[in-house]
Design a protein that fits this description.
By secondary structure, this protein is an alpha+beta fold. Helices cover about 30% and strands about 35% of the residues. The chain is built from four helices and seven strands, in the order E-H-H-E-E-E-H-E-H-E-E. Helix 1 runs antiparallel to helix 2.
Amino acid sequence: MHNEINIRHDLHPGDLGRLIALHGTAYEGEDNHFGLVFEAYVARTIAEYILDNKGQGRIWFAERADKLLATAAMVRRETASAPNDAHGQLRWILADPSARGLGLGKTLVNTAMDYARTEGFSEVFLETTEGLEASMSIYRALGFQEVSRETQNLWLGENTVITMTKKL
């Protein structure tokens, strides 16, 4: 029972901070384009999800013995041109380095996609960056198509932002 992984989506006090902290620590020491500025960016996007978007969507947490192992979310988005045509944004997909290879990312992304279908979203989009090959393989296997690639000045310098979509 102690080694059992629990997946939940009910938010508890402190969960949003744990999600932000995981994004800050999971990439620590890796040679990439993340850092404290990235952690602050994630904090801002979480705040926007709650304050501006009124928490429309769902966040999943994979935990073992109260340790956060992985996260994923599906955020409801509406377009200005068609306010009744809801889209989903796949966000905050991350596994702690100690939990990589367990299939949690794939499980959480599939759960999020099932949620998007249940909610009647017509399309799901995501934004990611170059260098995250494990994540990209999950997205491609699910049928996401790359729609744009743009070099931007991100958290610790330039990187390529990749936008992908999938019609539901």
